[in-house]
């Protein structure tokens, strides 16, 4: 059976999370080769009012697991934001990939019309259909944080190109 919401979400998240893992490895190798403290990259930002790289990776992973869980109709697992190293970020990505990879595609059936409630019980509560949530909110948020991770590292001299961002597809 065809599972369009699964096909439109989980493989996309997996592709980019795997590319982030490779990008982080390249950053780590670059730091070691140039004798640059890892924290220089891990705490780097594009602008003073933006989150540092560690937080960008955490948020990208959170969107991948959160969007996938909500569309599948399962509880969103909580991951503590305790990462402080490249190794920690690799583990976070692996944990996220394991979670979304474990979601059966059939759980996504009829999620196009499933009501997704953002910020429930607050003045900013917003109700969206599954399709609007995925295409208008979840994927753009995920790509923003994944792209910002790439941009921070590229801006700081890590040799990366579009192929690194795209990963294997």
What does this protein structure show overall?
The chain is mostly helical. The protein has one domain (4-166): dinb family like domain (Four Helix Bundle (Hemerythrin (Met), subunit A)), CATH 1.20.120.450. Helices cover 61% and strands 5% of the residues. It has 6 helices and 2 strands; from the N terminus they run H-H-H-H-E-E-H-H. Strands 1-2 form a two-stranded antiparallel ribbon. Helix 1 runs antiparallel to helix 3, helix 1 runs parallel beside helix 5 and helix 3 (53-72) packs parallel to helix 4. The longest helix has 31 residues, at 4-34. It is globular and about 50 Å long. The model has no long low-confidence stretch (mean pLDDT 96).
SSE topology:
Blueprint: H1 4-34, H2 38-42, H3 53-72, H4 86-101, E1 115-118, E2 126-129, H5 130-155, H6 162-166
Antiparallel strand pairs: 1-2
Helix pairs in contact: 1-3, 1-4, 1-5, 3-4, 3-5
Tell me, what is the CATH class? Mainly Alpha
Kindly report the CATH topology.
Four Helix Bundle (Hemerythrin (Met), subunit A)
Calculate Rg over CA atoms: 17 Å
**CATH architecture, please?**
Up-down Bundle
Give short descriptive properties of this protein.
169 residues; mainly alpha; Four Helix Bundle (Hemerythrin (Met), subunit A); two-stranded antiparallel sheet; 6 helices; 5% strand
């Amino acid at each position: 059976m065809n599972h369009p919401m699964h096909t439109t979400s989980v493989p996309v998240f997996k592709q980019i999370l795997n590319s982030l893992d490779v990008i982080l490895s390249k950053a780590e190798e670059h730091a070691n080769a140039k004798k640059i403290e890892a924290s220089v990259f891990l705490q780097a930002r594009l602008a003073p009012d933006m989150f540092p790289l560690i937080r960008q990776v955490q948020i990208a992973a959170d969107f991948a697991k959160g969007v996938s869980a909500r569309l599948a109709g399962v509880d969103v697992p909580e991951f503590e934001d305790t990462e402080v190293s490249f190794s920690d970020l690799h583990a976070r990505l692996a944990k996220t990939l394991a979670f979304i990879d474990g979601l059966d595609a059939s759980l996504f059936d009829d999620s196009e019309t499933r009501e997704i409630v953002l910020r429930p019980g607050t003045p900013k509560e917003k109700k969206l259909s599954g399709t609007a949530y995925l295409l208008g909110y979840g994927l753009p948020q995920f790509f923003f944080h994944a792209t910002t991770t790439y941009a921070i590292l590229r801006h700081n001299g890590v040799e990366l190109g579009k192929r690194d961002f795209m990963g294997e597809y």
